[in-house]
């Protein structure tokens, strides 16, 4: 299976049958430990691409238990109707579908941690690790994360038979991972008192500005995405500049409402080119930045408004709606 290509060209990941069976067995054991299991009457709605390891593992779990799988019609606008028709008992999602759900890495066979049913105190976490997978945190000093602190935080590392065998026809990349048998995920996690893991940051998407400050860009995008007038945002910076810039797809309804209130009469595309609209969006970004107590260098200093959302047609996002940062840079530079 291939990675999504968010950090460059998609890589072919060699996943053995043993990896898949090990993961399925681990999930089964975890659910049994809390008296939960799948039944034949359970129904799963499959709408993710079949080339996505997350969906494939879930489907194989359902097949193992003799449960049912229904497939959507391939149109996002009809997804609600598909839900009503199939009435799934289990519904799985990835970012953009449910912003608060984190998907798994292809290299770890899509799953290492599993949220437990009906455990409300685990909301906002990815749950505890499955029984047959080893996991640990490694400190990331440059980001201020200490795996040995009273609240352990650091890069999540995985070890076990669920790991991939290597990258297809890329021995150079295969030699880089794992390190001492541990696969470094690039996710920054925080152990919770109840044994679950909370993902709080992303190591792979950090960079240094010219003044030497490190920026965790995904964390900033998650914060700025909370602005009601913003549909989507891509934040960019590099080591040659001292500030951040962003490409924003504004909410059409919110921007047109703002324009009407301010006596500005023009269509949505024209609004996105208007300097007053850009100033308005920058003000909204600054407001939430102050609310969240961001550092000065984490504020956006310039913004470009694109009326067209990031899409697969321009190769800016993956089929599961994750940003392809190298392609975004090439397109907007």
Describe this structure in words.
With 333 residues, the protein is α+β, with helices and mostly antiparallel strands. The chain folds into two domains: 13-202, ANL, N-terminal domain (Rossmann fold, 3-Layer(aba) Sandwich); 206-332, ANL, C-terminal domain (GMP Synthetase, Chain A, domain 3), CATH 3.30.300.30. The chain contains nine helices and 13 strands. The chain has helices at 17-33, 53-64, 79-86, 171-176, 217-224, 252-261, 268-273, 275-291, 325-332, and strands at 13-14, 43-46, 68-71, 134-138, 153-159, 166-167, 183-191, 197-202, 206-208, 214-216, 230-236, 244-250, 300-305. The strands form five sheets. The chain has a four-stranded antiparallel β-sheet. The two termini are 31 Å apart.
Q: Strands of the largest sheet, in order across it?
A: 4-5-7-8
Order of helices and strands: EHEHEHEEEHEEEEHEEHHHEH
Distance between the termini: 31 Å
Radius of gyration: 21 Å
Which outline best applies? globular
In CATH terms, what is the architecture of the largest domain? 3-Layer(aba) Sandwich
- Helix count from the secondary structure assignment: 9
Q: What is the number of E strands?
A: 13
Category from helices, strands and their pairing: alpha+beta
Poorly predicted runs are: 99-104
Mean pLDDT: 84
Query: What is the third-level CATH name, the topology of the largest domain?
Result: Rossmann fold
CATH superfamily of the largest domain: ANL, N-terminal domain
Q: Please summarize the sheet with the most strands.
A: 4 strands, antiparallel
Number of domains: 2
CATH class of the largest domain: Alpha Beta
Helix content percent band? 25-40%
Approximate strand percentage: 15-25%
GO molecular function, one term: long-chain fatty acid-CoA ligase activity
InterPro entries: AMP-dep_synth/lig_dom, ANL_N_sf
GO cellular component, one term: endoplasmic reticulum
Pfam families: AMP-binding
């Amino acid at each position: 299976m291939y990675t999504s290509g968010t950090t460059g060209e998609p890589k072919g990941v060699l996943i053995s049958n043993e990896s898949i069976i090990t993961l399925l067995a681990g999930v089964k054991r975890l659910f049994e430990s809390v008296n939960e299991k799948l039944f034949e009457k359970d129904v799963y709605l499959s709408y993710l691409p079949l080339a996505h390891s997350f969906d494939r593992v879930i489907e194989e779990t359902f097949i193992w238990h003799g449960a049912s799988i229904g497939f959507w019609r391939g149109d996002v606008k009809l997804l609600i109707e598909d839900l009503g028709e199939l009435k799934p008992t289990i519904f799985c999602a990835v970012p953009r579908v449910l912003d608060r759900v984190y998907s798994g890495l292809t290299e770890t066979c899509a799953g290492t941690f599993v949220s437990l049913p009906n455990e409300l105190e685990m909301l906002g976490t990815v749950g505890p690790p499955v029984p047959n997978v080893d996991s640990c945190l490694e400190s990331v000093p440059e980001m201020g994360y200490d795996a040995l602190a009273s609240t352990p935080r650091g890069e999540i590392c995985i070890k076990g038979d669920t790991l991939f065998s290597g990258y297809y026809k890329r021995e150079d990349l295969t030699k880089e991972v794992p390190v001492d048998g541990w696969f470094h995920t690039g996710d920054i996690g925080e152990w919770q008192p109840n044994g679950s893991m909370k993902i709080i940051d992303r190591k792979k998407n950090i960079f240094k500005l010219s003044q030497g400050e490190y920026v965790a860009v995904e964390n900033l995008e998650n914060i700025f995405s909370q602005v009601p007038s913003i549909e989507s945002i891509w934040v960019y910076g590099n080591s040659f500049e001292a500030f951040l810039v962003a490409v924003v797809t504004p909410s059409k309804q919110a921007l047109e409402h703002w324009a009407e209130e301010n006596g500005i009469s023009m269509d949505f595309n024209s609004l996105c080119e208007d300097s007053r609209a850009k100033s308005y969006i920058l003000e909204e970004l600054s407001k939430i930045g102050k609310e969240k107590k961001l550092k000065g260098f984490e504020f956006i200093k310039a913004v470009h408004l694109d009326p067209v959302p990031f899409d697969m047609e321009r190769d800016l996002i993956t089929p599961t709606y994750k940003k392809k940062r190298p392609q975004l840079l090439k397109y907007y530079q």
